[in-house]
């Protein structure tokens, strides 16, 4: 793709955000963002768009090993600096080195501290009794056990786990390159990897104490190993066991991610070309997966998984009822009938003071995903147009399935629940960008205008729902 087009995407993105911010700040002036939040939003948008295309231009002709070293060390350096800086920032803002409204993080930390004390005393039965009685089930226990292990071995501090988050997130950028290069191509892989290095969501969650970084790391590595297993045709014990282990671990962080990984792998096998995987191997693989899944469903964890999925993703009216209890107007629109079409775009960025501190801090972070959503969606058109859709059977099925499930769930407006979709999302966006044609710009400009309107309308609705606009 010509370099001038890359720069075009960069400046249009910045322009849409700044224009949306200006309109909302002037039109809804009494509720305009304070300088601190303005600085966060503008800084993040300029950081991503300027640095992504600058470093992509600088690194794109490097030899592969050199490129991957730069990707890893720049990603790790950025995240490590962010971890240290945010510990001081949060301490200054909240009185402790935890993010705003850190109820979940504090719960993880204090529970892990207590379990670490029990582990040192050898009271393993007590540990599992407390886990079962004081968590939301198996899908809420993986991260606590992970922290407990770290605290038991290395002491109770929150810097070490955050630096490990930085390390995982940096290696995830390399895994994104490997996954994209094998399945789609070198140009797409390099752009996706560089975007991952500077992706605000990935950096932000290394500075928090929530489980998202570890979850996304496991999911991305599982996808990469699944892809390697099929494309390398090396069916060794380790090559088969490693993706199974990684997928199993995701169930301990968020049940639905593990389920989507299994479903996407099945679709990958079904849609793979005969040259890649023979019919015999397809049937053996599908039969093996079916046996494992059926056996798993009859275990206590399997039953619990079905209950969690029903409660969290089967009750489509959950958010409607929640907003009605809060007394908000337009609550009836918080259902899947209205949210599903925006699966790739949601949640829209908030540009007003009518939000919690985390949302105001992440206005630019939200926008980057809102903007890149066009390219991720357009990649489906490009893949069909270029007859490359089979290459997308793993990445595309995982990304689309997970995005739709979250859009149909209670978590459609919770940014962190959308995070596992981002690795595939970036690869799809990079694929569309590297194969963009002149005639595609009509759709790109139309989306940019629609996004601008959608953000302004969304901020209006937040005020109107609370009776603040009139």
Q: How would you portray this structure in words?
A:
The protein has 470 residues and is mostly helical. It has one domain (3-98, 158-465). 73% of the residues lie in helices and 0% in strands. It has 21 helices and no strands. Helix 1 (3-27) packs antiparallel against helix 2 (35-59), helix 2 (35-59) runs parallel beside helix 18 and helix 7 packs antiparallel against helix 8 (186-198). The protein is globular, with a radius of gyration of 22 Å. It starts with a helix and ends in a 5-residue tail after the last helix. The mean pLDDT is 86.
How are helices and strands ordered from N to C?
A: HHHHHHHHHHHHHHHHHHHHH
Give me the number of helical elements. 21
Q: Count the E strands.
A: 0
Envelope shape: globular
Number of domains: 1
Keywords:
470 residues, 73% helix, mainly alpha, 0% strand
Summary of the model, kept short:
The chain is built from 21 helices and no strands. The chain is mainly alpha-helical and 470 residues long.
In terms of topology, how is this protein built?
Layout: H1 3-27, H2 35-59, H3 64-94, H4 103-120, H5 124-134, H6 142-154, H7 159-183, H8 186-198, H9 200-206, H10 212-232, H11 237-251, H12 255-271, H13 279-297, H14 300-313, H15 318-325, H16 336-339, H17 357-361, H18 363-385, H19 395-407, H20 422-434, H21 441-465
């Amino acid at each position: 793709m010509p370099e001038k087009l890359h720069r075009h995407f960069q400046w249009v993105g910045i322009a849409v955000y700044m224009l949306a911010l200006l309109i909302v700040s002037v039109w809804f002036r009494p509720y305009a963002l304070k300088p601190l939040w303005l600085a966060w939003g503008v800084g993040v948008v300029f950081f991503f768009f300027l640095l992504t295309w600058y470093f992509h231009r600088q690194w794109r002709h490097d030899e592969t090993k050199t490129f991957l070293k730069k990707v890893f060390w720049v990603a790790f350096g950025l995240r490590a600096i962010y971890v240290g800086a945010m510990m001081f920032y949060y301490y200054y803002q909240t009185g402790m080195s935890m993010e705003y409204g850190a109820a979940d993080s504090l719960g993880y930390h204090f529970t892990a501290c207590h379990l670490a004390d029990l582990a040192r005393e050898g009271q393993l039965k007590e540990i599992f009794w407390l886990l079962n009685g004081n968590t939301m089930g198996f899908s809420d226990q993986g991260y606590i056990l992970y922290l407990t292990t770290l605290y038991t071995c290395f002491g109770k501090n929150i810097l070490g786990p955050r630096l490990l988050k930085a390390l995982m997130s940096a290696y995830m950028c390399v895994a994104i390159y490997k996954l994209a290069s094998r399945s789609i191509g070198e140009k797409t892989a390099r752009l996706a990897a560089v975007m991952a290095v500077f992706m605000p969501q990935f950096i932000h969650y290394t500075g928090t104490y929530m489980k998202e970084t570890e979850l996304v790391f496991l999911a991305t590595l599982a996808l990469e190993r699944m892809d390697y297993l099929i494309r390398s045709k090396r069916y060794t014990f380790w090559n088969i066991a490693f993706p199974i282990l990684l997928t199993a671990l995701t169930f301990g962080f968020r049940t639905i991610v593990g389920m989507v990984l299994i479903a996407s792998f099945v679709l990958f096998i079904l849609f793979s070309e005969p040259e890649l995987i023979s019919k015999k191997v397809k049937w053996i693989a599908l039969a093996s997966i079916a046996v494992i899944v059926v056996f798993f469903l009859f275990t206590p964890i399997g039953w619990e998984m079905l209950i969690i999925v029903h409660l969290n993703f089967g009750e489509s009216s959950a958010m409607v009822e929640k907003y009605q209890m809060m007394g908000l107007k337009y609550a009836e629109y918080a259902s899947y009938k209205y949210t599903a079409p925006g699966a790739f775009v949601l949640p829209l960025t908030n540009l007003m003071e009518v939000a919690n501190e985390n949302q105001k801090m992440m206005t630019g972070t939200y926008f980057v995903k809102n903007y890149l959503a066009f390219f991720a969606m357009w990649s489906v058109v490009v893949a069909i147009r270029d007859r490359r859709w089979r290459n997308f059977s793993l990445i595309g099925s995982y990304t689309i399935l997970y995005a739709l499930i979250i859009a149909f769930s209670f978590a459609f407006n919770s940014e962190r629940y959308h995070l596992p979709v981002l690795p595939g999302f970036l690869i799809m966006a990079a694929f569309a960008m590297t194969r963009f044609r002149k005639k595609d710009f009509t759709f790109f400009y139309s989306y940019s205008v629609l996004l601008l309107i959608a953000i302004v309308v969304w901020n209006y609705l937040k005020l109107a729902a609370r009776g603040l606009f009139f």
